[in-house]
């Protein structure tokens, strides 16, 4: 195990795999003191002075011993348990640091190499060695150890390191100027000259860079600014080197021709990257993230380090092209993936030399001249055809000069029919490419890997490892540290690959799809048929591979209208056949992932392949959760979660948010065609389990949303008991869950009808009651109830009809369709009376009371409310009694008995508050606020109405919000607050019109009419 230490930034100990924390400020100072004198003895007195300065306590010996013990533990942990690094050597202690293991020492070694190359005028070597030196910097040396770093000895060391860094930068700009890179040198030199206004070296080189870029006036300004600063600050004139540069500017001498590389320069390094196409589009965020993770600055970098060739080109330019050759299984395409990928790569401070650090985004350097953090490997993952190879090749071409010792490429063929390439054979090839003779190759794969890491140790090589099957496949091919890096593509996440950062890709957004097709088929052509273009993009599902095939077809058939191709791409009608052209074939690309999983020797992967087939055949349009998938697959929730994660890791399902998994549209169509092992009976049984799960889940949601104690009997009590159902904290959570699942519920209802399962169909429709309590105005519930009623009647399902009439009545009542509501309530009452269900009769009579109240028939309302209350009392339903107490309060209010009504409302509020039934509480609060208005209690009225409104808004209850605003506007009008009344009426009117709430629209218009009449009376 190679332990490394970092001083060029925050203090770091790295065990070769990950940073090891050094906690406690005294222990950190102690380690820094020993590192500054690495391999030399540091006396106990010197250590005490470092820890306590001039105020050494009487207990210093004991405290020092404790801090040393803690430090030994840290070092022993990093060393794999050995305890030989910190030695006791009279008169103090010695910290053993191996060669190259301290970044400050490694930096100075690199600077010496820069000096040697500068003397030999080997300008390429100067640039390369400077880059290697600057990559070691992570910030100011000992940045986290003030005030220790400000004491004499550490401060001197910090100054020496900083001066060496500046000198290396100056030499590197000599190389830039001698190689003719005058324009590129201007920007970073301008920044450095501003940061060091008295440093003549930066100003001299900036003058020359400006002059040789044709910017003589700016070069003169640099000289005069430097001279003024020197005279004012130091009382001295610029030195001879600056004056010579000034003379060159004055004379207008042309820039010297770039000097060739010296004879000592090494042979041309290997460059094996595949050719890049010319249609790469999008992926700007991912390109920036990968560049940052590889430690390469991009355009717009916030850093001010040396500008190198790696800064040319933006993150989002270029083309798509194919990555590897045809038939290799490598991806083709372009696009943009998930946002925020620049934050991958680890948290906290960057690690020491060769370690993995946090990445804050592309180009965000650590300070002047510092290099971004670099990770050992970057994994670009995604589903087949999403453009992983294209992105990797695109980035690799643009960072090649940041890896001057070469770029090695290999298609690992992890998903190819012919089998994957082995690390054993690839290591032989790579070692040969790096100059290791074949006769020197060990036979053992592990020994080859060791030799390969050794060959990379002093090089900056970029490895592009395409199409990896899993982490074990690629692990032997990775560098162990140093300055080389690997760019890996895989259909797997490779979450278990240590020392790697992940950049997942998703399908292209619409704008990039449009741009890609415009590049491939011509912008005028794609603009000519916007509707057909939209259909084509929808059919391709944002997959770059599919878009490339479509673009190729259009380009090769200029007479084809887009509408013709759009028709051929109709889902489930030969679309996958159309998405094939030569070696590009969407179906074959998907098959590589699926077949590898189906034929795996891992039982969980084979089970995942079955889940993939079932999802495609019975539920491809909708997301599943571990709970719903458990019902579909007939396994436990935990097992279903494991299966779904295997599919997500292989990018055979999308996982856009926690615990939700969905097939990509094209993958869903491919999965639907897989029927190798599952019988039709097995598929039907699985679908029925899923439909039954939805019925049970909706029943649970309605119970949480309404606290309704009466619900339909479950399909099968034992089956429901075994299902893993969602749990809801309150009514709002239950209603939001149902809203999200509503498209799935509608399809489930249709499928239940097609399978002849009326018992499931009507339970699904009835189960939407909770959602409808706040979303009745959308009309969704009415449509589902009507569809379920047709199914129930077709199967003579009397229980289903009873429940559907009961809930259809509620839907009519919410929409103020009072006569239709009463009609369905009477039918429901007869059906439940026929069944002898007293609780159902009580509920229906209570709803009748509510309808009569809406019709302002107080007598009938009271009769039905009292009958309902008596039945609730007979069956022992106290909650039902509370509900009916609210109904009786409504009757008292309607009869002009506000005092009695207010007392009843207060009692109901006491019973309901804290129960989690927000809709009921908001309704009672609204009615209570209106009664308080009548009683003249202004402040209490508005307080009650405001609480009701906040509940409605929180639950996104548009109809209830409109009701509450109506009562609030009336209250403002009642108390003579005309402007507030007008504003509230207008707000309510806008809401009612937006959501087609016809009743509230009429009420608002009437309210505004009365307000206008009031204003006219006031004017008179």
Chain-wise SSE layout:
Blueprint (H helix, E strand, L loop, with lengths): L3 E3 L5 E3 L4 E2 L4 H12 L4 E3 H9 L7 H19 L7 E4 L2 E4 L7 H17 L3 H12 L17 H27 L3 H14 L4 H13 L3 H19 L5 H12 L32 H10 L83 E5 L6 H11 L8 E5 L11 H11 L11 H13 L4 E7 L2 H4 L10 E6 L9 E5 L5 H12 L1 H6 L1 H11 L3 H13 L5 H7 L6 H4 L1 E2 L2 E2 H13 L4 H16 L7 H8 L3 H13 L4 E4 L2 E3 L2 H8 L7 H27 L10 H6 L8 H24 L3 H9 L2 H7 L4 H15 L3 H17 L3 H17 L3 H17 L3 H18 L2 H17 L3 H15 L5 H17 L3 H17 L3 H17 L3 H17 L3 H22 L1
Parallel strand pairs: 7-10, 7-11, 8-9, 9-10
Antiparallel strand pairs: 1-2, 2-3, 4-6, 5-6, 12-13, 14-15
Provide structural commentary.
Helices cover 58% and strands 6% of the residues. The protein is mainly alpha-helical and 1020 residues long. It folds into seven domains: 1-175, Arc Repressor Mutant, subunit A (Orthogonal Bundle); 180-256, Tetratricopeptide repeat domain (Serine Threonine Protein Phosphatase 5, Tetratricopeptide repeat); 270-303 and 373-505, Rossmann fold (3-Layer(aba) Sandwich); 510-582, no CATH class; 601-678, Orthogonal Bundle (Arc Repressor Mutant, subunit A), CATH 1.10.10.10; 684-899, Serine Threonine Protein Phosphatase 5, Tetratricopeptide repeat (Alpha Horseshoe), CATH 1.25.40.10; 909-1019, Tetratricopeptide repeat domain (Serine Threonine Protein Phosphatase 5, Tetratricopeptide repeat), CATH 1.25.40.10. The protein has a five-stranded parallel β-sheet, with helices on both faces. Strand 12 (580-581) and strand 13 (584-585) form a beta hairpin. Helix 27 packs parallel to helix 30 (758-766), helix 30 (758-766) packs antiparallel against helix 32 (780-794) and helix 41 runs antiparallel to helix 42 (978-994).
